[in-house]
Amino acid sequence: MDTVDRGLLDATGVTRPRVAILPTASWPDGDATFQRWAAMGVEHFTTLGAEVEPVMVRTPADGSDAANLQAVGEADLIYLSGGKPAHLLGVLQGSPLGEALCAAHARGAVIAGCSAGAMVLAGRQVDMSRPRVPFPIKWRSALGLVASAAVLPHYDAWPEALVALIALQAPRGDAVLGIDEETAAIGCNGAWQVQGRGRVTVWRGRRRERFRKGEAFRI
Predict the structure, then answer these.
(1) Residues of the chain with pLDDT under 70
(2) Angle between helix 97-106 and helix 66-74 axes, rounded to 10 deg
(3) Are 191 and 218 in contact (CB under 8 A)?
(4) Residue in 147, 88, 75, 149 with CA at minimum distance from that of residue 115
(5) How far is the C-alpha of 181 from the C-alpha of 97, rounded, in Å?
(6) CATH C-level class of 1-120
(7) pLDDT tens digits, 111-157
(8) Nearest-CA neighbor of 124 among 149, 97, 88?
(9) Distance CA 137, CA 26 (A)
(10) CA 175 vs CA 51, 53, 93, 124, 178: distances in Å
(11) How many CB atoms lie within 10 A of CB 106?
(12) Which of 26, 31, 164, 171 has the highest Cβ tally under 10 A?
């Protein structure tokens, strides 16, 4: 994803952007995984020429820490790691960190996430708090930076018949973005463009559209 992430850094308009890495979603998988996500983020974005700070938020209490909030408030790009989406959403909604992230977005910071980190940015999030996918699907209100939408990551890693069942149960009026692995949907001013090796599948009710690298769509 080097090319994609260089583009995100360029979009900040800053010569040496400040990047805040939030490995929060990975905390339920253990401290070793949490530390690994933070280290990978630091190494990756430092190599791309950014000034990088890991923001080690594990719990809602950490999300209330003044230093962590300052790091998010000063960042030009904020990157949310993969992991457990329910945990990440709980921390963001249960502390000032969620408001700080929204405030950073409002002032023009670039907000990016992979897997769980991408899911939480949308208006809705599939409730994955239980170990197996429950039917009927339950949806939770997420951070809402991308309103009237939900994200299904790793879309090409699952049988489409299964993920289609999830997408078809989305709340009426919401679009569901199925994003393949090693693929990104990059939004600016209401338009979205696909980058990376795979596709983005957009479900609007029973209507399905596919978009490949370089193609654009609106939600």
Answers:
(1) 128-135
(2) 20
(3) yes
(4) 88
(5) 27
(6) alpha beta
(7) 999 999 999 999 999 986 655 555 678 899 999 999 999 999 999 99
(8) 149
(9) 23
(10) 35, 33, 22, 10, 10
(11) 9
(12) 26
Domain 123-219 has CATH 1.10.10.60: no
pTM value is 0.94
Where helices occur in the chain by DSSP H, the ranges are 2-11, 31-47, 66-74, 85-93, 97-106, 116-119, 160-167
Q: Give yes or no on whether 1-120 and 123-219 have one common fold.
A: yes
From edge to edge, which strands make up the β-sheet containing 146-152? 139-141, 122-126, 146-152, 175-179, 200-204, 207-211
Provide the token pair at 163.
Answer: 């993920």
Asked whether the beta carbons of 72 and 105 are under 8 A apart, the reply is: no
Q: Domain residue spans in the chain? A: 1-120, 123-219
- Measured in degrees and rounded to the nearest 5, phi and psi for residue 159 equal -60, 130
The single residue listed with the structure tokens 């983005």 is: 200
110-113 and 51-54 strand pairing: unpaired
Burial class (CB in 10 A: 0-12, 13-18, 19+), 115: buried
- Quote the CA–CA distance of 82 and 96 in Å, as a whole number: 21
